Amino acid sequence: MSCKVKICGLKNREDARTAIEAGADYLGCVFFPPSPRHVEPQNAAEVFDMIGDADVLRVGLFVDPSDDQLMEVLNHVRLDIIQLHGHETPSRVEEVRLNFGLPVMKALPIETAQDVEAARAYDKVADRLLFDAKPPKGATRPGGNAIAFDWNLLTDTSWDSPWMLAGGLNVENVKDAIAQSGCKAVDVSSGVEAEKGVKSPELIEKFIAAVKG
Ligand SMILES: O=C(O)c1ccccc1N[C@@H]1O[C@H](COP(=O)(O)O)[C@@H](O)[C@H]1O
Predict the structure, then answer these.
(1) Which of 32, 76, 204, 210, by CA, is between 20 and 30 Å from 172?
(2) Alpha helix locations (H) across 50-120?
(3) Ligand 1 test: best mutation among 58, 64, 132, 173, most atoms within 8 Å of CB?
(4) Rounded CA gap, 74 and 62, in Å?
(5) CATH classification code of 4-212
């Protein structure tokens, strides 16, 4: 089975169509106002509408959301997965799953072997895990910073929950990232952009081809 791909930070229909036609397995929209990739719920609904009957999952990315924020988005947008990319505790992850009846993918910041061990508190609690690089000091967002971590930290690790690799992936490094980490799914945002917050159709196509080719 080939490695799955999530294209995150989509803001318009055209980029969504490119990702779907190129073979993306997940599309992601960011609901975090400080991000250059933030979209309003109505806009996200238009992005996800491009999926139609295709076998592609809709992922909503949130950072320490309140139930009110989640409700506001879910009133307008059908999601298949809620991605929590902030400092949510294991009990908050359980609460979100329970309150909204949707699978939760918990993003976990990795820099050292200790960070990998700390992530185990979320294994089985979250439906899926997403390993991303720890953001640099002073960063204005906890992800989407085009920073990679040492993929070998994940080599031969074993998890009950399915997991994805993220953080600084791009057309040049994604094959090595898959080989070293042993991941079965990758997530990219910055690496398929022409400039911050602006996706490049050409890079989306090249990235997916590099993963699946
Ligand atoms: O993309 C963002 O702006 C963002 C904001 C807040 C939290 C996470 C964010 N992005 C996610 O971070 C990882 C890695 O992204 P990158 O490829 O290094 O840019 C990925 O899951 C993004 O969706």
Answers:
(1) 32
(2) 67-74, 90-100, 113-119
(3) 132
(4) 12
(5) 3.20.20.70
Contact by Cβ (8 Å): 148, 134: no
Contact predicate 158/166, CB 8 Å: no
How far, in Å, CA of 175 to CA of 114, rounded? Answer: 25
Based on the residue annotation, tell me whether 132 is a catalytic residue of this protein: yes
Give this prediction's pTM. Answer: 0.97
Q: At what angle do helices 90-100 and 67-74 cross, to 10 degrees?
A: 40
Select which of 25, 132, 183, 187 is catalytic: 132
Compute, in degrees rounded to 10, the torsion defined by CA atoms 186, 213, 203, 33: -20
Q: Whose CA is nearest to atom 23 of ligand 1?
A: 8
Length of the chain: 213
Q: Check if 53 is active-site.
A: no
